[in-house]
Specification:
The protein is of the alpha+beta class. The chain has a single domain, classed as Nucleoid-associated protein YbaB-like domain (Ybab, Chain: A, 2-Layer Sandwich), CATH 3.30.1310. 59% of the residues lie in helices and 17% in strands. The chain contains 3 helices and 3 strands; from the N terminus they run αβββαα. A 3-stranded antiparallel beta sheet has the order 1-2-3. A hairpin with a 4-residue loop joins strand 1 and strand 2. Helix 1 packs antiparallel against helix 3. It is rod-shaped, with a radius of gyration of 21 Å. 9% of the residues are buried.
Length: 109
């Protein structure tokens, strides 16, 4: 039973390495941005890898034509689409880290 303790030490070492890789990945993702638009560019939302809205652009020429309720819907739509892209980016990057660590696909969220 005690001879398996060596494997436990290796597992702990690998877990610490994985934690460091995940921390580095989170920092890298925070610097990356994705964007999405609604109504053919009337509203453009930019989101970082932490799912934070970092920029919102509204085409002033089109805003005068839109009512407030429509503009609100376009903003929500653009932000939601950008967050979806950011989530996809995060999943892809986490899958790379998991593969590099030899973990089976889908193990990391």
């Amino acid at each position: 039973m005690l001879k398996n303790l060596g494997n436990m030490g290796e597992l702990i070492k690998q877990a610490k390495q994985m934690q460091e890789k995940m921390k580095t990945l989170q920092e890298e993702l925070a610097r990356k941005t994705v964007w999405a638009d609604s109504a053919a560019g009337s509203v453009i939302a930019t989101v970082n890898g932490r799912m934070e809205l970092v920029k919102l652009s509204i085409d002033k020429a089109r805003v005068n034509v839109l009512d407030t309720e429509m503009l609100e819907q376009l903003i929500v739509s653009a932000v939601s689409a950008a967050q979806g892209k950011a989530a996809d980016m995060m999943k892809a990057e986490m899958a790379k880290v998991a593969a590099d660590a030899g973990l089976p696909p889908g193990l990391l969220p």
